[in-house]
């Protein structure tokens, strides 16, 4: 890993970093990645299929379905609009994309 | 005067129903404690301005003859669980002024019962850390020694209960965030089975690990709080179907992974305390068996970084939260995220982007998911041989604030707790006594010695929380001897 890798990751994540922080992050990330690299030695089952996210094995790989019915819920429009950094006539205002 | 020191949810319920004191009086007593202690300890980020109104409503419900387990019970809520109309920031600058637009399911359940929410408690930003030092709003100090950390990430909740600033609290546990601060603060913390409690309205850190859990003073209180927040929820498709809890035999066998406990890096006083606990449990008639567990930290942290990086991507300053203006949209993102996220969050987002990137995916994330499956299979086998697994909750007692400046050294603190999150089993941390520490202590303390609490952790099979409460009660009796 080098400073260019840190810059590339920061760009991917859309996070602006100062030069000082980049320099500090590099050895941190190297030592952390060096540690988790131990994963190489961990045994694995060859046929594990899809990960089942912590469910007991007997209940894995079932999709949770529900009927496609509309059940109205009350949300305060005002409360949500008040969170917008910028709004106009009840719409969220954003900068132009292109 | 209400005796807060010995008060439990169980006792408060009886006293409230017998009109020995009112919910308003109880809430006011806690507000007085908070007023006295919070400036120093920084457990609460905000004490709600409607606490007495909530308590008054609870009193009115009681006047009408209503009674629920948590009616009028004053609770502290971690700053990552949404309460409609209240600020909720995940202890981050990026959500400093964010106001929740709905109630989390756990909050709706508690509101229905007339529970009283005292305020929102401090934590590591976005539940990333082990000490509450990663909060954007300052560290939470340990009640037993204010120069030490409270543990984390639910440090504020643990200190609120430990210092008598709340009767009980809610935290969230991703890799030990309920259990480890509970151990550092001498209280009880339960991490329920994955999917046991709805996470609708809990801000996500690591979606495949996160679960909401109670922090209390007794095992019975943990049971009461858990029983009243658990259950299937249509708004959280990862919740488990409602089931009656499994029956279990009265003579429990306990596995102890001595290979993990006897390794380097485990504090000698923690080991000593733990060995003493094992002896006492053996003397009380429980069967102890030697088992082996692997070091699960690499698996845990790889998955943690990966999921954190995708979960935190939503905070971009467009729809809510901190928005900093640049020359174009891209600059808005760069500035808002760069300034809004704290150091540890930024670090984990980058690490997550790395372990998920095309060239490294198989070596890190792919491999970790496979190892996770293998570990789950191992645990299935393990729990056919023993009923419970016992370890210390943490390898050290609470450390000095600022002592662990290297992030990796902090990660290693989670060695005993992450396993339960990886396999999704429930686990409880119970106070296991105190160690003495020598001064000098910060500020003008004249004491030469202080006590610091330690904790032990029991893990049980999926859905077996009742077994944990049972062994917790048994351990409370054994500890009194």
From TrEMBL, chain A:
Transmembrane segments: none annotated. One of its GO terms (biological process) is regulation of translational fidelity. InterPro entries: Asp/Glu-ADT_sf_sub_c (IPR036113), GatC (IPR003837). NCBIfam families: gatC. This is Aspartyl/glutamyl-tRNA(Asn/Gln) amidotransferase subunit C. It comes from Candidatus Nomurabacteria bacterium RIFCSPHIGHO2_02_FULL_41_18.
């Amino acid at each position: 890993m080098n400073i260019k890798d840190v810059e590339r990751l920061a760009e991917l994540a859309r996070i602006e970093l100062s030069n000082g922080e980049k320099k500090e992050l590099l050895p941190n990330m190297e030592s952390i990645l060096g540690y988790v690299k131990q994963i190489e030695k961990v045994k694995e089952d060859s046929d594990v299929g899809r990960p089942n996210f912590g469910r007991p094995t007997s209940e894995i790989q079932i999709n949770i379905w529900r009927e496609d019915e509309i059940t109205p819920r009350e949300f305060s429009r005002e409360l949500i609009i008040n969170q917008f950094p910028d709004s106009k006539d009840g719409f969220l205002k954003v900068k132009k994309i292109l | 005067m209400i005796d807060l020191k010995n008060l439990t949810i169980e006792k408060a319920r009886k006293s409230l129903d017998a009109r020995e004191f009112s919910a308003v009086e109880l809430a006011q007593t806690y507000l007085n404690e908070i007023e006295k202690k919070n400036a120093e300890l920084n457990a609460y980020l905000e004490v709600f301005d409607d606490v007495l109104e909530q308590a008054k409503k609870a009193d009115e419900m009681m006047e009408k003859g209503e009674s629920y387990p948590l009616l009028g019970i004053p609770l502290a809520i971690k700053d990552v669980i949404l309460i409609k109309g209240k600020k909720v920031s995940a202890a981050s600058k990026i959500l400093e002024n964010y106001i929740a637009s709905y109630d989390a399911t756990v909050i709706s359940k508690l509101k229905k019962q007339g529970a009283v929410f005292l305020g929102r408690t401090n934590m590591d930003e976005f539940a990333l850390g082990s000490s509450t030092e990663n909060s954007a709003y300052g560290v939470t100090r340990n009640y037993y020694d204010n120069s030490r950390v409270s543990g984390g990430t639910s440090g504020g909740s643990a200190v609120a209960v430990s210092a008598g600033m709340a009767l009980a609290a809610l935290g969230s546990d991703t890799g030990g965030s309920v259990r480890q601060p509970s151990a550092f603060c001498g209280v009880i913390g339960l991490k329920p089975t994955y999917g046991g409690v709805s996470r609708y309205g809990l801000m996500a850190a690591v979606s495949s690990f996160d679960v909401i859990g109670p922090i209390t003073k007794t095992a019975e209180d943990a049971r009461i709080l858990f029983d009243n927040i658990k259950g299937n929820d249509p708004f959280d498709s990862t919740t488990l179907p409602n089931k009656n809890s499994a029956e279990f035999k009265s003579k429990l066998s306990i596995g102890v992974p001595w290979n993990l406990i006897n390794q380097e890096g485990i504090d000698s006083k923690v080991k000593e305390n733990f060995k003493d606990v094992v002896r006492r449990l053996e003397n009380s008639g429980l069967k102890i068996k030697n088992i082996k567990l692997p070091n699960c930290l690499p698996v845990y942290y790889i998955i943690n970084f990966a999921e954190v990086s995708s979960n935190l991507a939503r905070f971009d300053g467009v729809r809510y939260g901190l928005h900093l203006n640049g020359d174009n949209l891209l600059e808005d993102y760069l500035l808002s995220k760069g300034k809004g996220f704290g150091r540890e969050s930024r670090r984990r987002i980058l690490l997550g982007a790395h372990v998920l990137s095309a060239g490294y995916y198989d070596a890190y994330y792919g491999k970790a998911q496979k190892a996770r499956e293998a570990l789950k299979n191992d645990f299935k086998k393990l729990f056919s041989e023993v009923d419970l697994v016992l370890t210390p909750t943490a390898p050290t007692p609470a450390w000095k604030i600022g002592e662990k400046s290297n992030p990796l050294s902090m990660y290693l603190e989670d060695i005993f707790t992450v396993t339960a999150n990886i396999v999704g089993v429930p686990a409880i941390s119970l106070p296991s006594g105190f160690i003495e520490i020598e001064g000098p202590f910060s500020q003008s303390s004249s004491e030469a010695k202080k006590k610091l609490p330690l904790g032990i952790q029991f893990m049980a099979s999926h859905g077996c929380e009742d077994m944990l409460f049972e062994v917790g009660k048994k351990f409370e009796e054994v500890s009194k001897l």
